Amino acid sequence: MRRKIPLIATAVAAVLALASCATESGAAPESSSSATGPLQAVTVGVIPIVDVAPIYLGVQEGIFERQGLDVTLQLADGGAAIVPAVAKGSTSSGSAT
Fold it and tell me: What is the model's pTM?
């Protein structure tokens, strides 16, 4: 189980990094304000452990919205359900609750 946690954390970080860089024009956003356009929808698979608390805090504090992201957290049973879904490009294909 301990080996899966870094893999999951890396996958979540990669998804967030790629999503924050991607825009329709392929350029980085000019402003950190979400008032300049629609938010980019991102679904992040999370597991029920304390290690994912920072992402919940980021959503609660509006940090992602200020960066132009509409983050939806999808609770999953474990990393084995998240990793294949990330590889397919959709976290909804995993075993989520």
Answer: 0.52
Q: Which residues contact 22 (CB under 8 A, 6 or more apart)?
A: 40
- Decide if 80 contacts 96 (C-beta within 8 A): no
Residue identified by tokens 């509006």 is 62
Regarding beta strands 40-46 and 69-75, do their DSSP bridges make them parallel or antiparallel, or are they unpaired?
parallel
Quote the CA–CA distance of 29 and 85 in Å, as a whole number. 27
Beta-carbon contacts of 70 under 8 Å, excluding residues fewer than 6 positions away, are 39, 40, 41, 42, 64
Q: Which residues, at least 6 apart from 29, have a Cβ–Cβ distance to it below 8 Å?
A: 23, 36, 67, 68
Express each pLDDT in 41-94 by its tens digit.
988 888 889 999 999 999 999 999 999 999 999 888 887 878 887 788 765 433
